[in-house]
User: What shape does this take?
Amino acid sequence: MAQHFDILIKRAALRTQSGQLSEIGIRDGKILALAGYLEGDATSTIDAQGNLVTESFVNPHLHLCKAYTRQMMDEEALTGYHAEGMGKAMTTIELAARVKEKYDEVWIIKNVRRALAQAAMHGNTHIRAFADVDPKARLEGMKALVRARDEFKDVLEVQVCAFAQDGMVREPGASTLMHQAMEMGADIAGGIPWIEYTEADIQQHVREIFDLAQKFNKDVSMLVDDAGDPGLRSLEAMAIEAIRRGWQGRALAHHARAMALYAQPYFQKVAALLKRANMAVVTDPHTGPLHARVKELLEEGVTVCLGQDDISDGYYPFGRNNMLEVAFLAAHLLWMTTNRELESLYDMITVNAARAMNIKEHALKVGAQANLVVLAAPNVLEALREHTAPVHVISGGKLVDRARMESLARTGEW
Ligand SMILES: [Zn+2]
Assistant: This one.
């Protein structure tokens, strides 16, 4: 039966079907048909030329309000160096805080648009974006992210995470600001419990973030155990609280770098808790020397995914929201190099990341949302080797306008 499609992709290699090519018919935002041959016509026809077509990329962790602030920091450091000789003594965190005192939606929004346009060009259709919420940053990052979420809604989905970067208990005023951020329309309640001074404060931080999540009926993201101290216990606290509150499947753990140093029996206990809490772990091995025990977590059946984490800020100099590049770096840093492991890495930037972010139907199958990338490589190995931007990105059944995104990525002007 001949059908009409909005987009028809021909000669597509699929990850699940080696040696044969497929055709994918898209209409009204969804994958309408998938077969070796589809009869019908289309408004746009794409010839994939035997290259890979997969689910689009999903980035579950990005400090979006900080994107491209590195240059400001360098200038700050230089200024400090010449003024009273203070620059050399300052730590990155203190410099980061100084940048936040200058936070203003007016300049943040331009950086945010540049980063999101780059993300779209590189095939991302979903991003969990963190906005610092504290007395220095105030709600300026939140304002910019909420605005960009709306501007980009036809291109990609931004989940705005209100993030208590400087703590809830140790930082006076943070609780009130976090409440205001949730009222502004944050999609996610975000915490960082390990940064508190005492064990009791860590527990209180976890409880306060879950209180916000429950009050506003939102999911939770927390940066946990993000230092080289094997005694950190905030991942465990987060998992236990998720189970207590019935928030299984609604809490996502980030970083968990101290996991690399956990004693084995303790690691096994935490892995069991993660499974009971149906809690996934986002790791970003390129932004720090320690990282979550990815291979062991996968063996235990815990969902693991990769995040970009930072783009040119005080913590990481590079980044362009290219998840193939993130996976390429992870392949080296995690020593995941067999074909099975490369496929696993590809899952970690597509379907696993979508599951972690509670995105429904992120699958290349009939009836699912048409969020796809058409790559310039025939298989996962070659896609990772070159990690070039997709030839075409389809978001919500529509082709992403590359020229428009390139212009936005340059100017930041909507
Ligand atoms: Zn991070």
